[in-house]
Amino acid sequence: AAGSCRRRRLAPLNEDNGRFLLLAALIAAYLSAGATVFSALESPSEAEAQLRWNRTLHNFSRIFNISLPELRAFLRSYEAAMAAGIRVDALRPRWDFPGAFYFVGTVVSTIGFGMTTPATVAGKVFLIVYGLFGCAGTILFFNLFLERIISLLAFIMKACHERQLRRSGLLPPNFRRGPAMSGVGSLVGWKPSVYHVLLILGIFAIALSCCASAMYTAVEGWNYVDSLYYCFVTFSTIGFGDLVSSQNAAYQNQGLYRFGNFVFIFMGVCCIYSLFNVISIVIKQVLNWVLKKFKCRCCPKCHKSSTRLSRRNAITPGARLRRHNISVDTDGQYDSDTEGRRLSGEMISMRELTASNKVSLAILQKQLSETANGYPRNVCINTRQNGFSAGVGALAIMNNRLAETSDSR
């Protein structure tokens, strides 16, 4: 058993790699399950539509005495015209300034409806350069929007919590935020819950989608379910392009509708992007919980003898320095059994292990707490730093934001 545990310790599959592989396996299973469901739902309808189309095609060829090869050649020309943006009914110009602005908006936001595409070589080359910087800048904007929406929610939740404490008599009526709050015990340990942020963002996204769907139902003539479907596909930047708003030649109150369409898409994309990032933290916590269940059960037994020997041995020259550099819990509390007296060669404490498993959730909670309380908390986390230690993407920007300890923030 000791040999097997030693081989496991030497294996390169650490917690980060295990989380990555577990997530990859779950995504593969999720994709397979989704493909199975959609295949069962949509395949019969597709087969039936194909049969109806073949029947219609043969009847048309027989009634009007047109050969099938000629009829198919005409239909191919019609499909090419549709790809170029030509329709039987009159549509708005695709490449006037409002149409082009709508197009670049779908490009930089990565929605990519596909109803408008460059036809010239110069346009395609310019799109590559334009999209490279435009998409990067827009993603950065979404990340900064995420930080500020979390800060706003933290201040609102903090104000509601203080109001509740005043009503219950736990806070003096003349209480002010600032350094004086450190003496109020009921506020020192309070943290806005990340799940409350998730709930608020979810409610706001649903309300925004419902309002936008009502507008699209009234103006575009879609049914309400199709409008909700369009809102999710657009706000999540999936952008299938089967339903696209503001494409008719004319609308009643056209200028007002275009402005409302832009505002709804802009706010919807920002809100759904923030919601996705908060959900990703919860998913990561689930992965950490699953990994914790798969941890080696025999490793503590294997290290028990070496742990006892290390406690009996004399302290090595670097032990005192290591003892002071050992990581501290996020709230500044020490483990009474191990913190402050850990010797060389000992295992890490369960508090450190739990804190490392919950670092993503603690990071967002700390952002909420620091922003709501109006001052940063000093946190000492002893980790190996490298170029990617804080991760990449929106969570990395949040981590860097939370790591700031300057008084100017």
From TrEMBL:
One GO CC annotation: plasma membrane
Keywords: Cell membrane, Ion channel, Ion transport, Membrane, Metal-binding, Potassium, Potassium channel, Potassium transport, Transmembrane, Transmembrane helix, Transport, Voltage-gated channel
Membrane disposition: Multi-pass membrane protein
Main subcellular location: membrane
Record domain Potassium channel: where: 92-149, 205-284
Claim: Membrane is one of the keywords in the record: yes
Reaction it catalyzes: K(+)(in) = K(+)(out)
Protein location: Cell membrane
GO molecular function: metal ion binding; outward rectifier potassium channel activity; potassium ion leak channel activity
GO biological process, one term: stabilization of membrane potential
Membrane-spanning segments: 20-41, 100-118, 125-146, 194-216, 228-250, 262-283
Similarity comment: Belongs to the two pore domain potassium channel (TC 1.A.1.8) family.
Name of the protein this chain belongs to: KCNKC protein
